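Hi P.,

Sorry for the delay on this. The queue was packed all week, but I finally got your sequence through. Input first:
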Amino acid sequence: MTSEQDQALIELCRSQIGIRYVYAAMSPSVGFDCSGLTSYVYKTLFNITLPRISYQQAVYGTAVSSSDIRIGDILCFDWSRNDGITDHVGIYVGNGRYIHASSSNRTYYDDCGAVIESTVIFGRSPVVAIRRIIQ
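Then the structure:
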C-alpha cells in the first residue's frame, strides 16, 4: 500500500473506535463484529470484498510473518478454544497496535463490547496468522 493508503486506513479504523460490538454486524450505524469491521474497512477504502467470517479471512490474501507485518495486514487470533483456528481478527495500524471489534468477554454473542485499539505482543498474543490483502 502507499503511504496515503496507510494513512487513510488508519484514519478510517480509528474513526470507528467506540462503535458498539454487535455480533454479525458490519456497519457504523448498527455496530461491528470483528470480521464485519475488517470487511467494512476494506470495502469502503479499496472496494475489496473480504470473506465475512474470521476463519475465512485467515486464509484470504497472502500469509506474512510478524517480522514483515505492515499497516493494513489482518491479524488472526485464536482467543477462545486454543485449537489454532481463527476466531477473531483485527487490522494492524502500526507500532504494535491493531484495531478490532471486541466483545467484552470474548464470547461470540456478547453485545457489550466496542471497537477498540489494542497492543499485539507477538509470542504472547494468540496470533495464528497474519494476512496481507493489498501488496
